[in-house]
Amino acid sequence: MSTPIQWRKSSYSCSGDGNACVEVALDHPHIAVRDSKTPTRAVLTFPAPAFAAFLRALQAV
């Protein structure tokens, strides 16, 4: 039996209904990403180090 992952939405989500963003979750050893408007659809997964590099690149912009 697998443990359900906990999804997190950015604190920078838009105002209003707050569904215009992505959600991320730790699904060890990967990071899972999904669209908050359609959470039951496809989930993308990335190796944690690759996702961390992606976030660092975004912060550098």
UniProtKB/TrEMBL annotation:
<dbReference type="Pfam" id="PF04149">
    <property type="entry name" value="DUF397"/>
</dbReference>
<feature type="domain" description="DUF397">
    <location>
        <begin position="6"/>
        <end position="58"/>
    </location>
</feature>
<dbReference type="InterPro" id="IPR007278">
    <property type="entry name" value="DUF397"/>
</dbReference>
<protein>
    <submittedName>
        <fullName>DUF397 domain-containing protein</fullName>
    </submittedName>
</protein>
